[in-house]
Design a protein that fits this description.
alpha+beta, 9-stranded antiparallel β-sheet, two-stranded antiparallel ribbon, 10 helices, about 20% helix, binds the ligand C=CC1=C(C)c2cc3[nH]c(cc4nc(cc5[nH]c(cc1n2)c(C)c5CCC(=O)O)C(CCC(=O)O)=C4C)c(C)c3C=C, binds fe (ii) ion, heme, metal-binding, heme binding
Amino acid sequence: MSLQENRGISRRGLFGALGAGAALVGAGAVVGRETAPGDSSTMADVVEFRGEHQAGIATPAQDRMHFVAFDVISDSRDDLIALLRTWTEVAERMTKGEQTYDNGATGGEEYSPPSDTGEALDLAPSQLTLTIGFGPSLFGTAEKDRFGIFSKKPAALADLQHFPGDILDPARSGGDIAIQACANDPQVAVHAIRNLARLGTGTVAVKWSQLGFGRTSSTSASQVTARNLMGFKDGTNNLKSEDTSEVSQFVWVDPKDDQDWMAGGTYLVARRIRMLIEAWDRTTLNEQERVFGRAKGSGAPKGSGAEFDAVDLQSKGPEGLLIDKAAHIRLASHESLNGIKLMRRGYNFTDGSDGFGHLDAGLFFIAFCRNPIEQFVPMQLQLSRKDLLNEYIQHMASAVFAVPPGVGQGEYWGSTLFGGAEGSPGPSNR
Ligand SMILES: C=CC1=C(C)c2cc3[nH]c(cc4nc(cc5[nH]c(cc1n2)c(C)c5CCC(=O)O)C(CCC(=O)O)=C4C)c(C)c3C=C
Ligand SMILES: [Fe+2]
């Protein structure tokens, strides 16, 4: 199906055609086939919203992202729960390609604002996934426990420490609640976040947001590896959803780990990493490949022939180690980190220029892991101290969120934390 034809199918009409198939597939499953990033034939697909785990983590990474962090501006637990219930129902509708409310964009009162903003009318579901996470600040303190959840704060959920070289912007870091929208059409992702933010008026306020494109990590073996803005294939040696035992070991929180409500959930670490693109672009190909330890063209480990060849960190040439002792893939490898792995799911970004003639561009790094303190922190500590890449990057913002498990029928986002899954009053038509 061409892009043109695809865009011609209404979101409701398309769901009519796909609905039966979508209902039959399992948790987090994708209806349709997976192809190269940007291939328009993926745009008609629906990713199941309900399931054991939230979609948007181990489901195949889409090509576009809109990520938002909110602060909760109400002190009312009831208001927060009501919003989470509303968000859940509306999010599920949007992932199916439906409007936030039936006929919300054009069918309402002539003298009231429409209850759907309308820019996704006529667009396909585009594999939209919406994934929620709760930041450390949402849980308050023993003294100020505004939502009564301080005792449920997981030990693994703490603001990340300062790493060498960090120059973090507090206005672009942290947040009480995050929602990650991923889709193969940027307008679908933006529509979803915009409408969720609109529905949150009075209860939450947007703290920061980030748009991303060109997924920098494959999360499924069926995907081709995309390139980051440094021109390298990124995601080759990522955890892949097909490797279910490793995903269980490194991504999903086990019931024995910590807080019961997080079983089947995970933690999301976000880092806005600026690339010093102009310096990188003046660097020789030889040096660029030394930095990563891989060939720029094929993505193969240095000294090897093909992208997915096993990495031999000991292999030597006439001038010594083929993969430099400070190469990115050596320092980030599980061999150098006592077996640690995590699932990367980041995106490229460009946010114009910085007023000094430099592109404000880089990698919006996202990783999912079972315990950020035991996985992300040691990995980032090692990279921040020794990585050759540090000469060309700058960590500008940081956030961490507890991502609850997926929602079953009758449950809402966060119901394992706040309780009262059944008897939802349903969304008010705001
Ligand atoms: C703390 C974790 C990581 C940060 C931060 C990070 C930043 C970062 N990475 C690239 C580009 C590449 N990374 C690659 C591999 C790779 N990176 C991490 C972790 C972090 N990267 C891991 C765990 C790995 C896999 C290591 C291994 O076992 O081989 C690669 C190679 C291809 C691949 O396997 O994905 C590239 C390229 C950039 C540009 C960047 C910050 C801007
Ligand atoms: Fe990396």
